[in-house]
Amino acid sequence: MDKFVINGPCKLSGSVETNGAKNAVLPLMAASLLARGECVIKNVPNLRDVATMTRLLEILGAGVAFKNHVLTIDTSKLTCLEAPYDLVRTMRASIYVMGPLVAAHKKARVSQPGGCAWGPRPIDLHIMALERLGAKVALEHGYINASAKRLRGAEIIFPVSSVGATAQTLMAAVLAKGETTLKNCALEPEVVELAKALNKAGAKIQGVGDRTMTITGVDAIEPFTHRVMPDRIEAGTFAAAAVATAGRVKITKCDPSNLSAVLDALTVCGADIEIGEDSIDVQGPDRVEPAHVVTREYPGFPTDMQAQMMAVLCRAKGTSTVKDTIYTDRFTHVPELRRLAASIRLDGNLAVIHGVKGLEGAPVMATDIRASSALIIAALMAKGRTDILRVYHIDRGYEKIERKLRRLGADIKRMPQ
Ligand code: EPU
Question: Taking the complete model, does pTM exceed 0.90, yes or no?
């Protein structure tokens, strides 16, 4: 197991490229199970979660090759229809294989994910939607057993907007007999990207990018080639790091159009931001202004940027608030930020952050992907040495973050823990 050792404070400066989006590539990898043949996914980030999904596809019998950010998945000879506990517990997105397996191979046995570091994270909507499409679903010995001779179209209304349930149901409904209407769909760009990729592969999805989508089931999904969109959360994390360190960072190969809520919040903090076609130039202020952030579904402020934003606000001149309405318990970074001398009070799903003049280095523990990146941002601001333990969390979602930060002038090393 590795740790990061960061000596701060530093002012980030220079330019950094964005990789492909983790949360877009994982459902696309699962969607390859709908086709029989070779799918090619380009601009794939080299991440631990991609390796976990690769392992899962290999267990199912797919042939997977990954080179130069291009993933080739051959699904012509699946031999197993089970996603085991060992993989699902390390990456919840493994459950994405359930819909495609039932739709294309009539059954699936997928481990129930259980809780995650910051709360229960239910999957009831995934199951409800599959049942509405005619699958028989039984929960047995910690596994979900789902089966259907052929799924059939239905009207499904999601009571809350869910990225995972929308993506899962889309992947199942494309092969269902007849028409499916999905209401209150998630609008996150990664879901839109999945729908577009499925349409390129022969699916008939109307209303892509709307809250209501209508899917006319087809008999086959063709093997597809798709280039993954840039990772908006990685881009947002570097923008936040620039603001936190009063630095100047140009983030390239990104899509600024899906980062508006984050860039607006950083502008409130005093950042000077110039938006290009596929780049963002961020100049951080000498002293951060307080801000009040509430996470919402897209196009609102993303929960996946909440922890990083909180790190930035630790050095604001005044009191800020961050409220998470998507995951009301997603605050495992708070006690760790406090170890770095941040002043944060938690009141339910509301964090009240009293800005301090400076943070101090200390040993801290990474607890999930985004909490880890918040700790990196805080460590870059803090005076002295910070050791961030358990960085395997960050390797799940950020490709070579330490190399990218070093090129921006950070003093960061990866060492055995
Ligand atoms: N929800 C339910 N029932 C369900 C599914 C979701 O009640 O069956 C609730 C959740 O508890 C939550 C809300 O719906 O309150 C939204 O959750 P959603 O289903 O949208 O989240 P997800 O699909 O499990 C994805 C991302 C997360 C990101 C969320 C929210 C992937 C692989 N994961 O999770 O990303 O936080 O959407 O945008 O796409 C990350 O990258 O660090 C990460 C955690």
Answer: yes
